[in-house]
Amino acid sequence: MENIGSCCTLDLDTFHKTKAHVSANPEAGKGRFETVTEWRDGAQAVTRARSFTLETDEPTALGGKDQHIDPMELLLASLGTCLTIGWVTQARMRNLDYRNLRIKVSAPFDLRGYLNLDPTVRAGFSELQYTVEVDTDADAATLEEIRKAAEKTSPMFDNILNPTAISGRVTKLSGNVAA
């Protein structure tokens, strides 16, 4: 594993100020994230979130050009990055540091669901597995506390583990749309 930095660089003071502010003013903790995804070509799309841009594609076997990350891999990355933040936050709260921290997330899939070949097979993953590889002086009991706390406070873990309502609608654009 490559040395990735220090948990001490996490701004815990601002974290605690935000926590206290939201505790005293629950409405201040409510907000909304939004992304806008635009189709580019073939299976490629560009997503914008705040000032960030992310490109996606499908593997060649599914008709894409395999030039960017697959949307299913984004789900794995979302879980892994959210858990990583939780692990770092929990370590910082305990005055611990990691020499290295890596979270591997994997999931099996069966293309028969996505390709609509078998109605009994899910289009998505059948399960998600993750492994935390950590180099630290913390004992096993502390690492287990951190794992539980990171899972409990991870928004991605919660959204994946628990049903989240999804609604959609279609708006038909008429005529030529200015770019």
The span between the termini is: 45 Å
Helix amount: 25-40%
Strands, count: 5
Characterize the main sheet.
Answer: 3 strands, antiparallel
Low-confidence stretches: none
Shape: globular
Strand arrangement in the largest pleated sheet:
1-2-3
Q: What structural class is derived from the secondary structure elements?
A: alpha+beta
What would you report as the Rg, rounded to the nearest angstrom? 20 Å
The share of residues in extended strands comes to 15-25%
Number of helices: 5
Which sequence of SSEs, written as H and E, runs from N to C?
HEEEHEHEHH
Mean pLDDT rating: 93
Pfam families: OsmC
Protein name: OsmC family protein
InterPro entries: KH_dom-like_a/b (IPR015946), OsmC/Ohr_fam (IPR003718), OsmC/Ohr_hydroprdx_reductase (IPR052924), OsmC/Ohrsf (IPR036102)
Any overview of this molecule?
This protein is α+β, with helices and mostly antiparallel strands and 179 residues long. It is 34% helix and 17% strand. Strands 1-2-3 form a three-stranded antiparallel beta sheet, with no helix packed on it. Helix 2 crosses helix 5. The relative contact order is 0.13.
Q: Descriptors for this entry?
A:
alpha+beta, 179 residues, OsmC family protein, two-stranded antiparallel sheet, OsmC/Ohr_fam, OsmC/Ohr_hydroprdx_reductase, 5 helices
Topology readout:
Blueprint: H1 12-24, E1 36-41, E2 44-49, E3 52-56, H2 71-93, E4 100-106, H3 111-114, E5 129-135, H4 140-153, H5 155-161
Antiparallel strand pairs: 1-2, 2-3, 4-5
InterPro entries: KH_dom-like_a/b, OsmC/Ohr_fam, OsmC/Ohr_hydroprdx_reductase, OsmC/Ohrsf
Protein name: OsmC family protein
Pfam family, one: OsmC
